[in-house]
Design brief:
Blueprint lengths: L1 H17 L10 H7 L7 H13 L5 H19 L5 H46 L5 E4 L2 E4 L1
Antiparallel strand pairs: 1-2
Length: 146
């Protein structure tokens, strides 16, 4: 009886893990930049719009804080004439690329952990199935086991 409850419990957990509520769609950084005229306006003028809209997205808070701080610094440098618009956009493109790579690595690590957890659950289930008692009946010269 305990074996059946364990199997049902593992299957229930596995079924619940796969179901997640739909995530709301947020604009990408590229879409935000387009809406703010990022490519057609000077960087220092477009940055406040990009900053405000991007700050409202559900991005990893540490990465978001780093990206916004970098943008604030770059905008200040551009306003002071210490950096051209081209240099400012290049620095921000590199920062966005690094952030995307960090997010991708975090997602890969989470996915791998989920796969390992599911593999362990499947392994535990197979051990439970293999360790159940075997019952044999003999009728004459025939032996049937189940």
């Amino acid at each position: 009886m305990r074996t059946i409850l364990l199997i049902v419990g593992l299957l229930a957990v596995a079924a619940c893990e796969g179901q997640q509520p739909p995530q709301p769609q947020y604009p990408s950084l590229g879409q935000i930049e387009d809406a703010c005229g990022y490519d057609s306006r000077p960087f220092a003028e477009a940055w406040p719009c990009v900053r405000q809209r991007f700050a409202g997205t559900p991005t990893d808070q540490n990465l978001l804080a780093l990206y916004l701080a970098r943008g604030d610094f770059v905008a200040e440098q551009a306003r002071a004439g210490k950096m051209s618009d081209t240099e400012a956009r290049l620095v921000m493109a590199e920062a966005a690329n690094r952030s995307k790579n960090e997010v991708r690595q975090q997602e890969d690590a989470q996915r791998n952990a989920e796969y390992q957890r599911r593999a362990l659950a499947i392994g535990a289930l197979s051990v439970v199935q293999q360790s159940r008692p075997v019952t044999c009946n003999r009728v004459g010269s025939t032996v049937t086991c189940y």
